[in-house]
Amino acid sequence: MLTAENLFEKSLETAKFLQSKVNYTPEYAIVLGSGLGSLVEDIDVELEIPYKEIPNFPVSTVKGHKGSLIFGELNGKKIVAMNGRFHYYEGYNMKEVTFPERVFWQMGIRKLIVSNASGGVNTSFNIGDVMLINDHINFFPEHPLRGPNDERFGPRFVNMSEPYSKAMLKVVKDYAAEKNIKIQEGVYLGLQGPTFETLAEYTMVRNVGGDAVGMSTVPEVIVAKHMDMEVFGISVITDLGTAEFIEEVNHKEVLKAAKAAEPIVRELVAKLVEKY
Ligand code: HPA
């Protein structure tokens, strides 16, 4: 089991295993969110490793659960992509949810891109919009850094003044403006799920300052910032938490909307990797 005490050694062991399979350090790690897996098609794949073949990677008891790490090149840059992430609602603890970020850092990777699907609560958002994440609110019931701090990763008290890199945001915003691609920008609020929100909860998310709500990303970004990684986050608004739209919120609609916005996410992520 992964604990605060063995996390450094375990993640180092896993990093060494992966480094023995690929003889380079990727510049970027990219987490592919639900419905955004087709980003894989843009990658010149050099190696794909199923999670179950990676030492210390969390194993799922859920039947048919799949996922893999994909090493390759995207727009001329070496990357590793996580095709499938570990969600807290699946039963993993926070050390497991964020283990891949520890491993990426141990490999020498310092840039992280995270993507997800989320529900919009900002009334100027539409289904299918792409939102650049410029900040987050952590409403998960367990903190990924709880417990003894390992100073080799980072400090006990982590500065969170710039969780999402302003420089990376600028690159993507400039590109979108130049190409006339419509994007939104806002605050992602993370809840544990697996229920979608009630109307009262969506309203709360809005009232406390969220623009979108989802069940992932925040723990991963916190751990990345613990290790001083540079982070870019992008979200597809797949449903709207308003009285008018709440009846439509279900997994099928979420995946459908994520699919529709996928080409834009793919283009923005690929351009960021190329230019930054
Ligand atoms: N709420 C939480 N998570 C989500 C949503 C939502 O409305 N849409 C996609 N992921």
The CATH superfamily appears as: Nucleoside phosphorylase domain
Which ligands accompany this protein?
hypoxanthine
- Note poorly predicted spans: none
Mean pLDDT: 93
Main β sheet profile: 5 strands, mixed, barrel
The tally of structural domains comes to 1
CATH fold group: Rossmann fold
Strand order across the largest sheet = 5-8-7-6-9
Number of helices: 7
Give a description of the structure.
The protein is of the alpha/beta class. It has one domain (7-275): 3-Layer(aba) Sandwich (Rossmann fold). The chain is 30% helix and 24% strand. It starts with 6 loop residues before the first helix and ends with a helix. The model has no long low-confidence stretch (mean pLDDT 93). Bound molecules: hypoxanthine (HPA). Residues 117-119, 196-197, 213-215, 238-239, 241, 249, 254 line the site of hypoxanthine.
Secondary-structure blueprint of this entry?
Layout (H helix, E strand, L loop, with lengths): L6 H15 L6 E5 L11 E7 L17 E7 L2 E7 L10 H4 L1 H8 L4 E10 L9 E9 L27 H13 L5 E7 L8 H9 L4 E3 L3 H9 L3 E11 L10 H25 L1
Helix pairs in contact: 1-3, 4-7
Bound molecules: hypoxanthine.
Hypoxanthine binds next to β5, β8 and β9.
